[in-house]
Amino acid sequence: MFNSSQFTPKYFLLTGLPGLEPHYPWFIFPFCSTYLVALMGNSLILTVIKRSISLHQPMYLFLAMLAFAELGVSASTLPTVLGIFLFIVNKICFEACLLQMFSIHSFSIMESGVLLAMSVDHFVAIYNPLRYTAIMTLPRIAGTGAALGLKSVMLMFPMPFLLKRLPFCGHNTLSHSYCLHSDLIQLPCGDTRPNSILGLCIVTSTFGLDFLLIVVSYVLILYTVLGITSGEGQWKALNTCVSHICAVLGYYVPMISGSPVHHFLKHAAPAVHLLLASVYLLVPPVLNPIIYSVKTKQIRQGLIQLFLQRKY
Fold first, then answer.
1. Which of 79, 181, 233, 281 has CB 3.0 to 4.6 Å from 228, enough for a Cys bridge?
2. Do the Cβ atoms of 207 and 48 come closer than 8 Å?
């Protein structure tokens, strides 16, 4: 199982739903349908925005970035999750596990950054609508997207190398159906303090800071909206933010509530904890395409036109 010269495992064992192995066929349809909705929904969003010149605006370009990040998260977890439930294969080689960890966290960081960029976009549109097009130019939007992608890659780049240098002693079973950094650093028998410190810095400087700045953005948005004299104008301004608020809640609420839920359900079956831990990775890629397709008229019309063109 272990390479005696380098003290690194050849593979890790992933965990499905302990105690429910005989019932895995019942979970195939829910998991397959969840991934199908996530992959198809975000792919359709990207296709509609790419094909419609009228949607080449900041709001929709940021939405395309969000769909791209969510596609990345779903595609990163898909092979191992479906591998466990469809083919009962729970092994993943060391290098593939590190690659999966890097992909999941990089796309998650990018997703958080895009949600922050979208909140800033909404604030600019409401606070200074006359100068909106001058501020949110296409080159600036492209630069923001490139910066978010580069940031997510650079932050996670040291992690696989820091893990690879550590000796793993005896235990090589992970507690999820995919590889996460918080899970992997529990296994080495060497000094994991650099990994833990860097991981804490990444979480604080990305998810924590992004969420704080999103809250500040919406406080400023609310203050600006209250200054609008027309009630209809206030409603119209707030209505443009509904989809984004739902996306933010769908992303951050499962993440923030994970620890309290784990505490209050600490005596529940392990399968319950594993399902709850997977919610924050599976829910946003499924919900966001549905939310934006229902709430955003331009996206809805683009989807209808796309399907009509394919039909004829």
1. 233
2. no
